[in-house]
User: What shape does this take?
Amino acid sequence: MAAQTPNRQDADEPETGLDEDAVTSAADDDTVDDDEVTAAEIDRSLWEETRIDPVSIALPSGVGYTLRAYRPSTEVTPTEIEAEDDDDPFAARARRLREDEDDDLDDEEDGELVILDEKAKELFDEADKDEKSDEPDEKDGEPDEESDEPDEAKDDKEEAEEIPAFLSHRGKLLLFKSPESLVAFVRSGAPHDLAQLDTWGTLAERLQPADVVPLEEDAYELDLVVENLRGGADTWDLDLLIEAGEVARDLGYALRLAPVLTALSPGSPLDDLDEALRSASRGGLGGFMGRRRLKRIGAQQASLGWRTIIGKISAVVDWRD
Assistant: This one.
């Protein structure tokens, strides 16, 4: 019996006119295209309507899902934490404001005139009228108090900045190991800090596990930061480190982590690193100068600083299955 040529098609097999490797490659391409279409067709209308986004955060202890929203500071109450005022800059600031208000009130009370004689009261009232008559009116270009009130209210409204809020409770970040566990918690009615949002009811009613797909820019890999920094400026992943800085600042503010905010505060070594990374990522002359600045930043110092930040964040994570 003659041996069949390896490339020769068997008589019982239908002729396809295509090489076997080409067919396999085409099948693989179809699979990739199907996956891409599925990812592109995910309905994000619920997230856009509620202005809340799913987020994934990778830490040394694992990867978890949570939720984040940005709202004006006047609409969000900060998370409650168990900390002494001296350790909590937010509480210390609030205490100082209360003390200043009390001092102002004491000053006003000390300067108040108590008039017991009715005749003397009439004299003081007449003196006040004379002083008011000497004051310039609105026609002289001096606006009265009533005209100032709307402007002051407008200024206060403009000063309300957007701040981050996470799915957290009592200073703990709630991270879920699967979309299903996240959705189960959202529907459970358990207490958390995002329940104060005006759109939370809509999200809790309609959220499905298939909806929990973070955008690429909302997936943070903090577990890779320290190792990447140890490699030196030539190997630093700019996008990885920039995104890590963004989420660390958000978490530091939302969870009131004073050490994290201090480490990333303006003028700090890690803030200088962040600025250099952003300059380098923009390319052009600015990118060239940014890369030169990166080479002057110590890899060991940067990695140690970020190791501390990630440790502080990991310490306030409440993992949920």
Notes: Residues 89-159 form one domain. The chain has two domains: 45-86+162-320, 89-159. DSSP finds 13 helices and seven strands in the chain.
